[in-house]
Amino acid sequence: MPHKIGFVVVSSSGHEDGFSARELMIHAPTVSGWRSPRFCQFPQEIVLQMVERCRIRKLQLLAHQYMISSKIEFYISESLPEYFAPYQAERFRRLGYVSLCDNEKTGCKARELKSVYVDAVGQFLKLIFHQNHVNKYNIYNQVALVAINIIGDPADFSDESNTASREKLIDHYLGHNSEDPALEGTYARKSDYISPLDDLAFDMYQDPEVAQIIRKLDERKREAVQKERYDYAKKLKQAIADLQKVGERLGRYEVEKRCAVEKEDYDLAKEKKQQMEQYRAEVYEQLELHSLLDAELMRRPFDLPLQPLARSGSPCHQKPMPSLPQLEERGTENQFAEPFLQEKPSSYSLTISPQHSAVDPLLPATDPHPKINVGRVPALR
């Protein structure tokens, strides 16, 4: 089953101070992403190394609201080219490109989340950014990328022909019809199913620690289903649904806290920090009460560095407002970049204010303090 693939940034052609390409290695509500140098030469380039050789199925790119590249090209390689490793002369193979919207219709108040379907094997991915779209906010002619997500399978375990043959043989002997509409939408029957928890939008909305707990609980839910422990699976399903609301709320608090730090309102920042700690403690206490929280789930994924929300040297510097708008869906025409790449028929926009900010508010407003309602689910025997 395709899943999120980890990666590290090998190199980039340059970056603005405070906006290194290494920022792309972190997915969270407060990340700033990569920005090219001011008045840079084009094209700009970023090279990523995936944690393992894999077959890429899907790429997700979260564009900046006004530092937008007109076109992004994709290249893949099994190994680094000769200018990184002199004894390995293999070059990158071009996959294709996608075009990004100039954002004029939204007044540069939305960020486009572009999904690109791919079928390519390798371990190194190169992105080439072409000339920026011109608008009144992008006074330094920069391009930027807030986040990138790679979804795929380990290459050694993604022989589709063999997998499909085995599944058809099993279905034949069990008397199952693979076209049975009753099986449609069930991830147990689809080898190409992608979990919503691997979607980039999930991480960009969720508190990182809560997101990790949700993923662990989802693994336990799948194990419970396989063992036919359906009461426990139902309990976990409800906990996951409630925790997603909790993660969004904590992510919102984190954005508001950093806005307060930028404004040097340290009393408000302290209040938000205490609010987060109290709310997190209350939620975790409820999880422990229902035996859903243990030491394994409590390992922190990482500590995000505290960064200012805006660069005071920017002529477009504005006071950041902690507004947390909803995710909007915006339809686009179905396009084909190259034989290997296809744009998704629809893309998503994250509405924000057009300002120079290192931390952009992404989270939707949610109901205050949602409760964990796992207690209403029948207890296990």
TrEMBL record:
- At the top level, the lineage of the source is Eukaryota
Against Pfam families, the record matches this protein to: CEP104_N (PF21038)
Q: Where is this region: Disordered?
A: 359-381
Boundaries of each Centrosomal protein CEP104 N-terminal domain copy? 33-152
Please give the PANTHER family that the UniProt record associates with this protein. Answer: CENTROSOMAL PROTEIN OF 104 KDA, GLYCINE-, GLUTAMATE-, THIENYLCYCLOHEXYLPIPERIDINE-BINDING PROTEIN
Q: What is this protein called?
A: Centrosomal protein 104
The organism's taxonomic lineage, starting at the top: Eukaryota, Metazoa, Chordata, Craniata, Vertebrata
